[in-house]
Amino acid sequence: MNAAGKIRDTAAKVPGWDSEFWHYIHSGDGVHCPLLGNCQLKGNGSWCIDDHGRQIRQLYDVKRLSPRSYNLIRCGPCGSIFNKVDTLAEKYLEAGGVSHPPVPTELFWAIDQLHTAEIRILPLRTCHGAIWNFEGRWVVYLRADDAPAMKRFTLFHEAFHALAHYNTDTIFQKRAAIRGSFNELLADAFAGSILAPKEWVKQVWQDVLDLDAMTNIFAAPKPLICIRLRRMGFI
């Protein structure tokens, strides 16, 4: 069975966490975490990704990375929604039969089996990518001058928006134009969880202990690897 067939079979049995996750997303405004008013992490004074969303997203556009660029990021537990994003990514990796880096870009086409998708490379200036639902098919724009690793990240970022549109049809219209909005953070988190799952990062980092080697092995943007390592307390 190919990747699309495996995912179709898996998706036929939607677990409770999946329904709960999309319910939360549907109930939110797309700008802030829908659990903001009842967050145990914030109640305990823990570091919150949503509080630093704009700065975190800007790290992907930093030309010269330095350890100080990541000082705002803290190691610690993620909120419930971000844990479910990890689980969502694991679901598609497992269903697609992907068990080691780098993740093949072909997984993108297998995530939504109900709609075809076309990728267009364009000279975008204000964003890394965009996605549109046009007459029942997805059209994905990727920025032409982005490095291949960044294009891969953007592709799976946009895959999350496709999933959101499929699972809760109002969310696509709710996509906020504000850079750093919560929906965009979730899409970044999904792309990160697809390209660099925590267990893979942990195993590979213990073997190589080298940032450049990590980015090559995972074929992922260096800022993404830095953020993942920082959140896990490795750097």
Summarize the structure.
The chain has one domain.
Which properties best describe this structure?
mainly alpha, single chain, globular, 235 residues, 3-stranded mixed beta sheet
SS-based structural class? mainly alpha
Number of domains: 1
Helix content: 40-55%
Strand elements, count: 3
Query: For the terminal residues, how far apart are their CA atoms?
Result: 40 Å
Over the alpha carbons, how many angstroms does the gyration radius reach?
17 Å
Instruction: Summarize the helix and strand pattern as letters.
Output: HHHHHHEEEHHHHHH
Main beta sheet: 3 strands, mixed
Strand order of the largest sheet: 1-3-2
Low-confidence stretches: 6-12, 170-180
Shape: globular
- Estimate the strand proportion: 5-15%
- How many helix segments? 12
In words, what does this structure look like?
The protein is globular and about 45 Å long. The chain has one domain (3-231). It has helices spanning 3-11, 16-27, 40-43, 53-58, 80-95, 107-111, 148-167, 171-174, 182-195, 198-208, 211-218, 222-231, and strands at residues 117-122, 129-134, 137-143. Helix 2 (16-27) packs across helix 5 and helix 5 (80-95) packs across helix 9. The longest helix is centred in the last third of the chain and has 20 residues, at 148-167. The protein has 235 residues and is mainly α. A 3-stranded mixed β-sheet has the order 1-3-2, covered by helices on one side. 51% of the residues lie in helices and 8% in strands. It starts with a helix and ends with a helix.
